[in-house]
Write a structure and sequence with these properties.
The complex is a heterodimer of chains A (264) and B (275). Chain A is built from nine helices and 14 strands. Chain A is of the alpha/beta class and 264 residues long. In chain A, the strands form three sheets. A six-stranded mixed beta sheet of chain A has the order 6-7-8-3-9-10, sandwiched between helices. The longest helix of chain A has 13 residues. In chain A, 46% of the residues are buried. Chain B is 72% helix and 0% strand. Classes of the chains: A alpha/beta (264), B mainly alpha (275).
Chain lengths: 264, 275
């Protein structure tokens, strides 16, 4: 289980916090839904210890994150920046990370093949020479096959074509263990209905509720009495209500459109 | 040998930029030194001694320059892999200590291969020109000096990369990463300039003296090596004990500062890398 307690993150001391007072417990499969710039990736970086936190604590399986060193099997993340170690090809990087984490190299090659990255391509290109979608698929497969109990997937479907999105969803469903997946795309809600979902806006995390409930919810501007969930974006309050009382969330396609609603 | 170590060595020995600057560029100066700048010839014992000293100076100074060039690449790669390093040390079976040791050993092996390439090419090409096989008087001493130079330059590069990361002055990397080469060129300037007692103070400036001593067996001066080689005017000899203390002290300073900075480093987000 990942426990986030009173987390605040800011990149520079004068800057506004990117993450504000986040409290959460993640012990199953979770979606974190939020528009671009809402702090989703920063939250993942903080959980993986890749960015300094201003205050708060992160506890993984009862151990403070600051005390975790040299522990394979605890956590994996799909940020491509952590898989660019050497000036070498993607194949060597894959070999390295499967070796360091006890992952299944042959299965990783097969899964990458499913996602359109042939062994030949991996041998020819360095990780950063792959296309954006290929880079995402590459780092997602390494994270999924790292034998980690907790996996953080940052926008894993971004720039993947529909066929490969379907393949990846299959792999996610099969995976045993805790997964936190962040995205701004609402179509995922109907594909992963049994996942617990949190919303993230302007550095604040709210929720959770099941993706199945959320996919049938509507967004209403203002404070509705029968709201399942309320949140504030750019000083404006929104309520998520059951049924069709407002803009169906699934119609938004991407949560970036929330800002258009703010202006309307 | 672990896979990380093997890949580290493979990376450094196949990186075209490192090969270009660390070997290609320096080999050009090896050729210039031996075939253009060195006018000494003759068969008297004194002339042969002068030629051997000249050859020793060539591999000492140019070997150091090659290692300094490679250290620039090291700073860059350490900087760019800082996030990966943080992740690897936390969530893979390589802990912090093992990561530092393996990264250091891999880099050291590669740096030494670069330096030995320069050393062997100087020996080989001087044999082609003069028919003299100028093997070092004390090969173990020369090897030890090269290892110390490699250790010092690795930690200098590491210290620079970490200082940039910790201070979040990412744009300063381009300028600061050249510090090892600046250090290398200050040492190189001793071919013409006598730095006097500054040779013990400036980082790694006394390394060529140690290399020359172990290479030819003579006590070199505190600088102005060409004048020392060609004129009859005596120059003050370097204190080799102080020279060794200077090199060790600087190496320990680089290692200590790196380890202090390492504790504070959390890597640089990709968004902040604007070089």
């Amino acid at each position: 289980m990942i426990e986030v307690v009173n987390l605040h993150v800011k990149y520079r001391w004068r800057q506004e916090p990117v993450i504000r007072d986040v409290h959460a417990r993640f012990k199953d499969k979770h979606l974190i839904l939020g528009p671009n710039g809402s702090g989703k990736t920063t939250l993942f970086r903080a959980i993986a210890g890749l960015t300094p936190i201003s205050s708060g604590r992160i506890i993984i399986d009862g151990v403070n994150l600051d005390e975790i060193y040299g522990k394979p099997g605890v956590l994996a993340i799909n940020l491509s920046e952590v898989y660019n170690v050497f000036h070498l090809n993607a194949y060597d990087h894959l070999r390295l990370f499967m070796d360091l984490t006890g992952g299944d190299f042959d299965l990783a090659l097969k899964m990458l093949g499913d996602l359109g990255l042939s062994t030949d391509l991996l041998r020819k290109r360095k990780p950063w020479e792959l296309s954006a979608g290929q880079q995402k698929a590459f780092s997602t497969v390494i994270a999924l096959l790292s034998s980690a109990r907790h996996i953080l997937l940052d926008e894993p479907f971004e720039q993947l074509d529909p066929a490969r999105k379907g393949k990846l969803i299959e792999h996610l469903r099969e995976h045993k263990g805790v997964i936190l997946l962040n995205t701004h795309e609402t179509w995922l809600l109907s594909a992963l209905k049994d996942w617990s979902t949190h919303l993230m806006f302007e550095g604040k995390l709210c929720g959770s509720m099941s993706a199945g409930e959320l996919v049938e919810a509507s967004l209403v501007v203002g404070d509705s009495a029968d709201a399942m969930l309320r949140f504030t974006v750019s000083g404006k309050t929104y309520s998520l209500v059951r049924g069709e009382g407002g803009e169906p969330l699934s119609n938004l396609i991407t949560l970036d459109r929330i800002y258009e609603l703010t202006l309307s | 040998m672990t896979l990380y170590l093997r890949l580290k060595i493979k990376e450094m020995l196949t990186n075209p930029e490192l090969l270009g600057w660390g070997i290609g560029f320096i080999e050009f100066w090896v050729l210039m030194w031996i075939f253009v700048f060195s006018q000494v010839s003759g068969e008297t014992p004194w002339k042969i001694y002068v030629m051997k000293t000249n050859i020793t100076m060539a591999y000492s100074f140019l070997g150091l320059l090659s290692m300094s060039s490679v250290a620039i690449g090291l700073s860059y790669s350490l900087f760019h892999a800082s996030r990966a390093a943080r992740y690897i040390t936390k969530f893979t079976r390589i802990g912090v200590l093992r990561f530092i040791v393996e990264d250091f050993l891999g880099s050291l092996v590669a740096i030494l291969i670069f330096a030995l390439t320069i050393f062997l090419s100087v020996i080989g090409l001087s044999y082609v020109k003069w028919g003299i096989l100028a093997l070092p008087e004390n090969p173990l001493g020369v090897m030890a000096d090269l290892v110390i130079a490699g250790i010092a330059l690795y930690w200098l590069a590491y210290m620079i990369a970490l200082a940039v990361i910790v201070s979040r002055r990412t744009r300063a990397l381009t300028m600061t990463s050249y510090m090892p080469l600046i250090v290398g060129f200050i040492a190189y300037s001793q071919l013409w300039i006598d730095l006097g007692n500054l040779v013990y103070v400036i980082p790694l400036c006394s390394l060529p003296a140690l290399l020359t001593y172990h290479g030819i067996g003579a006590f070199p001066p505190t600088g102005a090596y060409f004048a020392w080689l060609t004129s009859d005017k005596p120059l003050p000899a370097i204190n080799l004990r102080l020279a060794a203390i200077s090199v060790f002290t600087w190496t320990i300073i680089f290692i200590t500062l790196s380890l202090i900075l390492l504790r504070k480093s959390r890597g640089v987000p990709v968004e902040e890398i604007r070089l």
